[in-house]
Automatic annotation (TrEMBL), chain A:
Major location (coarse): membrane
Quaternary structure note: The main subunits of complex b-c1 are: cytochrome b, cytochrome c1 and the Rieske protein.
Annotated source species: Mariprofundus ferrooxydans PV-1
Name recorded for this polypeptide: Cytochrome b
The keyword Nucleotide-binding is annotated on this UniProt entry: no
UniProtKB/TrEMBL annotation, chain B:
Positions of the Rieske domain: 89-198
GO MF terms, alphabetically ordered: 2 iron, 2 sulfur cluster binding; metal ion binding; quinol-cytochrome-c reductase activity
Lineage of origin: Bacteria, Pseudomonadati, Pseudomonadota, Candidatius Mariprofundia, Mariprofundales
Entry protein name: Ubiquinol-cytochrome c reductase iron-sulfur subunit
Species of provenance: Mariprofundus ferrooxydans PV-1
Subunit composition and interactions: The main subunits of complex b-c1 are: cytochrome b, cytochrome c1 and the Rieske protein.
From TrEMBL, chain C:
Gene Ontology cellular component terms for the protein in this record: membrane
Protein name: Cytochrome c1, heme protein
Cofactor: how bound: Binds 1 heme c group covalently per subunit.
Keywords on record: Heme, Iron, Membrane, Metal-binding, Signal, Transmembrane, Transmembrane helix
């Protein structure tokens, strides 16, 4: 085995004596004991790392040509918009790198949402993995921030109005609202100072993210992976070394992901307006709002929760709560059994929860109509009800017998 | 474990193919990223510069930009040209042979190698000192009268680099004893008309 | 196993939403006419360029496309002479910008005509929308909007652009010709909105093909290695 040879090489030994590198590689990568029954839902973790790498790499190269300036140029465009078009037209392979980045943002959320859904379904958030889960929620929030900052950069109509709407949300908060709003905007409206600071933060956040992902993986390796049965695995009996079993399994997952990702990048980079919105090809105009404005698909579930309330402040609070409640998940669920496979009631609840999130997302993307609004409100109610019911489910739920061994 | 059932040839073969294809993939990814750092199409498009020689009075030097680099254009007078010969013995490379960058396609005669121009009166050269790239100061008149001790007593007129003291004559040829290794580099250019040149 | 199926279904549902053409790219009521264009067809793109420079550029620009691009892009690859004719005394590296000053346009039409470099990406319906607008000038059935300003496909029906192809009231004999011009210019605009699109699709075929091969090998390897493990 090549890897075994590399780890035993003299260079590796020399490095190991000075840095523990071989010991660490063995402990965390090659020999790392992993449950032998993980299904493909466990591939999304390594995929998330892959997409983060794609985003950082493509972002660094975009930043070599991108110019964060709202200064006007001819035809109603701006320096920032022009620089993105220059990337698309004149920079060698610029079109590829930009599409990789724009499609990568959506791919990142697909992968991470699947990863989170896996965690909820199989009870991976439950003890002893509470901290691991909490770090994960922090990652989600930072990702959403990163995407929000990044979406302003092309300085199109959706960039501008999206940022206007979201900074106004912060403005709705009592006491600190207007302070926060001006802090984000650096002016009385979204403008050149906003664009500059968003670029700076858009560069910073992914690097933070990379560091926090390090913490996430570290926490994982302390408490070890959960598995589809949710029962504790004893080293030796139920585990196999990560390499080669999961390296090849993840490699296959990566292959499937890359086929889908590259298919979109090369053949449908805007994905019919879902990944890059039609209105973002129109230059930002602070005097005219596009006829239909909605956030990019990955933020729409939260946007629906916001819109479900007549009162602006309530909406903002509900939206914040819908994310914050994720932190509490490990403490709300009191059941001794982890995996939904053995929890008939919980299983129905979770499936309905996933459906409600999809419905919320759909509503948030569509032009609001009274029916859709009602559906959105129902989905919002269920979203919160799921969390409210959790502490009580274990009292009446008859769990199915757990296997002794995996 | 069922070691006996393992077909290790098939297994090794698959490992080999997978690693090989994986390596090809990684190399393929490098192509667009490295490629994107090369000059973009619009940068390449402005890689030529036109210059109107009418705007120069005899004896004058201008520094213009070509591909973002400074270029000297000098209108040399008769006396300037006549002084080129006298100091030849002090030059490192009077016939501009030392390096491809000091030569040009049109340098067919020894005369052209020494005056370093298509038409003797118009000199066009890269303005960066061949030492470490500063732009030398134009000191055309001979002797120290105008320039003091910054130039040698028998100064033929030419350029003096303020950074580390390299000296060049009025054909951009480096004078012996300078830290600069080569004559000033040539620039590709051609005459569009008697009074117009296209650089690049 | 149940979960896997469920995930697969939700994935497919998501894909279905995305694939529904009417959804994200929702128009404004009237169904657009389909523009049957080919952005790889050099002849069509060149004809479209001519329509663009002779008619549209009276008012509109395409500032992101330079005269030099018309030589360099394989989809146009004009000769230097043709481009010199088109550009007059404008520099080769200048974008295709109309001579109509924005202030004058405002006086004449009440609005500055938008730059068309990205129009196909920037409108729901894309090339279909452009084609429909160009061939959508009609008499206002309600009689409110003056002739030349009523367009069936324009949101709100009142358009500031005066019928550029003289579609309204044209001779029946000219219909095919005018439709062709509208198609050609739609093809040109679809092409310039993303000038590397043909190259992108060409490269994409190799990339996806390679990845399918790679994934197949990974799959076989995974199968092979996992033989060790008893489930
Ligand atoms: C967590 C990882 C990241 C996410 C989710 C993300 C997301 C986004 C999004 C949604 C856009 C707007 C895309 C568009 O419509 O064009 C964008 C643009 C941009 N991002 Fe990122 N990004 C990430 C990392 C980075 C990094 C590390 C950099 C490095 C500096 C970067 C640099 C840029 C630049 C320069 C743009 C503007 C160019 C453009 O609009 O295409 N990004 N990003
Ligand atoms: S740079 Fe001119 S002498 Fe050193």
């Amino acid at each position: 085995m090549v890897i075994e040879k590399m780890l035993n090489s003299r260079l590796a030994q020399w490095l190991d004596e000075r840095s523990d590198i071989v010991k660490l590689t063995r402990a965390h990568l090659t020999d790392y004991p992993t449950p032998k029954n993980l299904n493909y839902m466990w591939s999304f973790g390594s995929l998330a790392m892959l997409v983060l790498t794609i985003q950082i790499l493509s972002g660094i190269f975009l930043a070599m040509y991108y110019k964060p300036s709202a200064m006007m140029t001819s035809g109603g465009y701006s320096v920032a918009f022009d620089s993105v078009e220059r990337i698309m037209r004149d920079v060698n392979f610029g079109w590829l790198i930009r599409y990789m980045h724009a499609v990568g943002a959506s791919a990142f959320f697909i992968v991470v949402y699947m990863h989170i859904g896996r965690g909820i379904y199989y009870g991976s958030y439950k003890g002893p993995r509470e901290l691991l889960w909490i770090i994960g929620v922090v990652i989600l929030l930072i990702m959403q921030g990163t995407a929000f900052f990044g979406y302003l950069l092309p300085w199109g109509q959706m960039s501008f109005w999206g940022a206007t709407v979201i900074t106004n949300l912060f403005g709705a908060l009592p006491v600190i609202g207007s302070f926060l709003q001006e802090l984000l905007r650096g002016g009385f409206a979204v403008g050149d100072p906003t664009l500059n600071r968003f670029f700076s933060l858009h560069y910073l956040f992914p690097l933070l993210l990379a560091a926090i992902v390090g913490g996430h993986v570290h926490a994982l390796h302390v408490v070890h992976s959960n598995n589809p049965t949710g029962v504790d695995v004893h080293e030796g009996k139920g585990t196999i070394p990560f390499h080669p079993y999961y390296t090849v399994k993840d490699a296959f997952g990566v292959g499937v992901f890359l086929i889908l990702y590259c298919y979109v990048v090369f053949f449908h980079p805007q994905l019919g307006g879902y990944f890059i919105e039609v209105d973002n090809y129109v230059a930002a105009d602070n005097l005219q709002t596009p006829s239909h404005i909605a956030p990019v698909w990955y933020l729409t579930p939260w946007y629906t929760i916001l819109r479900s309330f007549e009162n602006k402040l309530l909406g903002v609070i509900a939206m914040g709560a819908s994310l914050a409640v994720l932190f509490l998940l490990p403490f709300l669920d009191r059941s001794k059994v982890r995996s939904a496979r053995y929890r008939p009631v919980f299983r129905q609840m979770v499936i309905l929860f996933f459906i409600s999130v999809l419905v919320l997302g759909y509503c948030g993307h569509s032009v609001p109509t009274p029916t859709l609004k009602l559906i959105g409100q129902l989905a919002t109610i269920y979203y919160f009800a799921f969390f409210f019911m959790l502490p009580f489910v274990h009292k009446f739920e008859k769990t199915r017998p757990l296997p002794e061994e995996i | 474990m069922a070691e006996d059932q393992v077909d290790s040839r098939r297994r090794n073969f698959l490992w080999g193919v997978a690693s090989g294809l994986g390596a090809v993939g990684v190399a393929g990814v490098a192509v667009p990223f490295v490629g994107s750092m090369m000059p973009a199409a619009d940068t390449m498009a402005v890689s030529t510069t036109e210059f109107n020689l009418d705007t120069l009075v005899p004896g004058q030097l201008v520094v213009i930009a070509w591909q973002g680099k400074p270029v000297f254009v000098v209108h040399r007078t008769e006396p300037m040209l006549s002084r080129l010969k006298e100091y030849e013995y002090k030059l490192k490379d009077p016939e501009s042979l030392a390096d491809p960058r000091v030569q040009a396609d049109w340098m067919k005669t020894t005369e052209q190698r020494m005056t370093r121009s298509i038409k003797p009166e118009h000199l066009v050269l890269i303005a960066n000192c061949t030492h470490l790239g500063c732009i030398p100061l134009f000191k055309p008149s001979p002797g120290r009268a105008e320039w003091g001790s910054s130039v040698p007593e028998d100064w033929p007129g030419g350029w003096h680099c303020p950074c580390h003291g390299s000296l060049y004559d009025l054909a951009g040829r480096v004078i012996d004893g300078s830290p600069a290794p080569f004559n000033l580099y040539t620039v590709p250019y051609k005459y569009l008309s008697d009074t117009k040149i296209l650089i690049g | 196993m149940k979960l896997k199926q469920m995930m697969a279904v939700s994935f497919m549902l998501g894909g279905l939403f995305a694939a529904l053409p009417g959804h994200a790219s929702e128009g404004h009521g009237v169904a657009l006419k389909h523009a049957d264009i080919d952005v790889t067809d050099q002849a069509q793109i060149r004809r479209g360029l001519t329509v663009f420079t002779e008619l549209c550029m009276g008012c509109h620009s395409a500032k992101y496309v330079t005269y030099r691009d018309l030589i360099d892009y394989p989809e146009t690859s004009l000769s230097r002479e043709d481009v010199d004719d088109l550009r007059g005394d404008k520099p080769l590296i200048a974008g295709m910008v109309t001579d109509l000053a924005p202030e004058d346009a405002k006086v004449s039409y009440g609005k500055v005509p938008p730059d068309l470099s990205l129009i196909v990406s920037a409108r729901r319906g894309g090339a279909d929308y452009v084609y429909s607008i160009l061939t959508g000038f009609e008499h206002d059935p309600a009689g409110h909007v003056p002739d030349g300003n009523f367009n069936e496909y324009f949101p709100g029906n009142r358009i500031a652009m005066p019928d550029p192809l003289s579609w309204l009231g044209h001779d029946a004999a000219d219909t095919a010709d005018l439709e062709q011009q509208a198609l050609d210019v739609s093809a040109f605009l679809a092409y310039i909105s993303d000038p590397h699109q043909n190259e992108r699709r060409a490269i994409g075929r190799y990339v996806v093909g390679f990845l399918i091969l790679l994934t197949l090998v990974f799959y076989l390897l995974k199968k092979e290695i996992w033989k060790d493990i008893k489930h």
